[in-house]
Amino acid sequence: MAARLAAAPFAIQPLGEVPFEELRALERILAEQFGAKAVVLAPVAVPREAYSPGRGQHDADVLLDELFGRLPERCLRVVGVTEADLFIAGRTFVFGYAHLSDGMAIYSLARLRESFYGRPPDPAILGRRIERAVVHEIGHTFGASHCEDPGCVMHAVTHVETLDALCPIYCARCLSRVEVGLGTAPWSARGRWERGLAWLRRRVYARAVEALEHAVSCAPLEPSYHHDLGVAKLASGDRDGARAAFLRAAELRPEPEAEPESGDEEREAAV
Fold first, then answer.
1. DSSP string of the chain?
2. How large is the angle between the packed helices 239-252 and 223-236, nearest 10 degrees?
3. pTM for the whole thing?
4. CA distances, 234 to each of 101, 123, 213, 243 (Å)
């Protein structure tokens, strides 16, 4: 897919022990599919609080929280990889998981291996499954939701057979979303704005204000950046700062065009 180079590297975060060859495979996928260099971070332990004893699985939402705190400032996305079997609320399992706006994705090797289903190991099948799972989850991080096009990699997956049948490329609509995201550097005004909103959603208000102030300094005429800075400052308790940001946003918004009077409409129609 990589018709363009990503604006910044992707970070790879192993959670627990992950075979070296699987990390190299992920690096190749990021280079070939997204034109992205990869930074492999030091492995970290799978958080204990993610484990559900009753299920014998790990909560993917908790793992995304762990990844979010580890995203390097100048990396575009972070992709977590683990051997732990994953689930989310309402699902018996997931191959991978991602939020639509935070820049985090994770996938598990557990159910991608043929051995999980009692079959002999098959490196070729494993490689194809990893590629589909990774491209699908990264698509989510760029705002692409599940797609109804059966020829798109963002088509919904429910079990391993549907993963195997998944087309490994994006449809035109999903590709356009991904390409916009790939071209947005994390240190740009939009990149800082997106990061600020992610901190805001996670209620880390000081970091949200810091990122949004950076966005405003880079693009001082963008009213939405001032508005969201106001929201973050209000949430952090800075009422005066919030008021100033909201006022500036209002000043920068274009005035709505006045509706033409009926006589004007008649004159235009008569021309």
1. --SS--SSPEEEEEES---HHHHHHHHHHHHHHH---EEEPPPBPPPGGGEETTTTEEEHHHHHHHHHTT--TT-SEEEEEESS-EE-TT-S-BSEEE-SSS-EEEEESGGGSGGGGTS---HHHHHHHHHHHHHHHHHHHTT---BS-TTSTTB---SHHHHHH--SS--HHHHHHHHHHHT--TTSHHHHHHHHHHHHHTT-HHHHHHHHHHHHHH-TT-HHHHHHHHHHHHHHT-HHHHHHHHHHHHHHSPPPPPPPPHHHHHHHHH-
2. 170
3. 0.87
4. 22, 52, 14, 8
Query: Looking at the predicted structure, is the pLDDT value of residue 2 above 80?
Result: no
Catalytic residue among 21, 73, 83, 137: 137
Q: Which pLDDT band holds residue 256 (cuts at 50, 70, 90)?
A: low
What b/e sequence results for 228-240 when a residue is b if at least 16 CB atoms lie within 10 Å of its CB, and e otherwise? bbbbbbbebebee
Summarize pLDDT for 69-120 with one digit per residue, the tens: 888 889 999 999 999 999 999 999 999 999 888 889 999 999 999 999 999 9
pLDDT band at 19 (very low <50, low <70, confident <90, very high): very high
Helix axes 223-236, 189-201, angle to 10 degrees: 30
Question: Residue 24 corresponds to which tokens in the numbers above?
Answer: 């190299």
User: Torsion over CA of 126, 50, 76 and 252, rounded to 10 degrees?
Assistant: 140
Catalytic residue at 137?
Answer: yes
